[in-house]
């Protein structure tokens, strides 16, 4: 999966390593006038990378995965405002936005119809250099290392955005159910605690339930042994797990007129009864990562409240083994890869 590319520019050779689906030489990308060229230092492995690797998101090889990267700006295009060479940044994998449609003008540029997704090219989060769009980029606050910040660029902002949606209708100090407390889920527990919620964590793995308690869950429930009569319903249930049964459970753990916040993406048909949702007026509210503002807020909250993901630091050459471990469910927290 690794490759070393050599390209000659102005008479000097430049090389870069890139973790991609198949071996292929790739040149160091050249930023446009409104782009940032970032030399990456750390990048985290996400379940979305796993889904892309498995072909669920429509990617076709060759492609470089990775969308939780942190690094240093080494070149800023002439039209870039707000960033400069030497800034420590993280970015989401969206670029090419028009900056003039309703979504862009409202701060939701990740929904721009003209955007280009990050996992469709050869320069992604698992390459030494990548192109970042200023609209998708934020500065990393002091108090977070590169390795700690990387998982927050997708897992963290997604968890944070889910909690922002919860907070719009449910006050802090109230109980909240979170189903699935792995890589994204343990951060959802941490942000929920910062928001003031009393969390009950659900999972099938005892190590992940223990991790959830470490991050502030008041109770951990193993769903393999859970009986319906023992379920305590809450106004809101956040589903982080991508397992289809997690959504069937969420219907049972959510009160009448409540909301199920959908984060996890199942790859099997859902089995709950829609009529049950209708009769009890239970809504399903999907969450798609977050805006640049959400990302900035989530990083600042993490730095202020000491929200730091549980991570295992690896070398980029060990990426394939990480895919295997994650596929087997052997990873607690996040795998973060360094480029040095």
TrEMBL record:
<keyword id="KW-0862">Zinc</keyword>
<dbReference type="GO" id="GO:0004022">
    <property type="term" value="F:alcohol dehydrogenase (NAD+) activity"/>
</dbReference>
<keyword id="KW-0560">Oxidoreductase</keyword>
<dbReference type="InterPro" id="IPR002328">
    <property type="entry name" value="ADH_Zn_CS"/>
</dbReference>
<dbReference type="InterPro" id="IPR011032">
    <property type="entry name" value="GroES-like_sf"/>
</dbReference>
<dbReference type="InterPro" id="IPR036291">
    <property type="entry name" value="NAD(P)-bd_dom_sf"/>
</dbReference>
<dbReference type="InterPro" id="IPR013154">
    <property type="entry name" value="ADH-like_N"/>
</dbReference>
<keyword id="KW-0479">Metal-binding</keyword>
<comment type="similarity">
    <text>Belongs to the zinc-containing alcohol dehydrogenase family.</text>
</comment>
<dbReference type="InterPro" id="IPR013149">
    <property type="entry name" value="ADH-like_C"/>
</dbReference>
<dbReference type="GO" id="GO:0005737">
    <property type="term" value="C:cytoplasm"/>
</dbReference>
<dbReference type="Pfam" id="PF00107">
    <property type="entry name" value="ADH_zinc_N"/>
</dbReference>
<feature type="domain" description="Enoyl reductase (ER)">
    <location>
        <begin position="11"/>
        <end position="337"/>
    </location>
</feature>
<dbReference type="GO" id="GO:0008270">
    <property type="term" value="F:zinc ion binding"/>
</dbReference>
<dbReference type="Pfam" id="PF08240">
    <property type="entry name" value="ADH_N"/>
</dbReference>
<dbReference type="InterPro" id="IPR020843">
    <property type="entry name" value="ER"/>
</dbReference>
<protein>
    <submittedName>
        <fullName>Alcohol dehydrogenase</fullName>
    </submittedName>
</protein>
């Amino acid at each position: 999966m690794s490759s070393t590319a050599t390209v000659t520019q102005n008479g000097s050779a430049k090389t870069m390593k890139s973790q991609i689906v198949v071996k292929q030489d790739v040149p160091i990308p050249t930023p446009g006038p409104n782009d940032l060229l970032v030399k990456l230092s750390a990048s985290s492995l996400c379940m979305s990378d796993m889904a892309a690797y498995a072909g669920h998101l429509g990617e076709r090889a060759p492609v470089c995965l990775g969308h939780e990267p942190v690094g240093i700006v080494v070149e800023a295009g002439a039209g870039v405002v707000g960033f400069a060479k030497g800034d420590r940044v993280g970015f989401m994998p969206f670029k090419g936005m028009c900056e003039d449609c309703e979504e862009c003008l409202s701060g939701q540029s990740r929904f721009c119809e003209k955007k280009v997704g990050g996992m469709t090219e050869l320069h992604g989060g698992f390459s030494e250099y990548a192109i970042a769009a200023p609209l998708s980029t934020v500065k990393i606050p002091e108090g977070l290392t590169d390795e700690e910040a990387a998982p927050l660029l997708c897992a963290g902002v997604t968890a944070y955005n889910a909690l922002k949606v919860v907070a719009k209708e449910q006050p802090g100090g109230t109980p909240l159910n979170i189903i699935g407390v792995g890589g994204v889920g343990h951060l959802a527990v941490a942000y929920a605690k910062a928001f003031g919620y009393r969390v009950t964590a659900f999972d099938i793995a005892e190590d992940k339930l223990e991790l959830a308690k470490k991050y502030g869950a008041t109770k951990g429930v193993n769903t393999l042994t859970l009986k319906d009569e023992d379920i305590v319903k809450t106004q809101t249930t956040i589903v982080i797990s991508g397992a289809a049964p997690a959504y069937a459970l969420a219907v049972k753990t959510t009160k009448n007129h409540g909301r199920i916040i959908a984060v996890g993406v199942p790859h099997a048909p859902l089995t709950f009864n829609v009529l049950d949702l209708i009769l009890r007026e239970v809504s399903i509210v999907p969450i798609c990562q977050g805006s640049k503002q959400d990302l900035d807020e989530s990083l600042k909250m993490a730095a202020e409240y000491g929200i730091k993901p549980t991570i295992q630091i690896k070398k980029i050459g060990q990426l394939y083994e990480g895919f295997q471990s994650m596929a087997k469910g052997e990873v607690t927290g996040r795998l973060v890869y360094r480029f040095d």
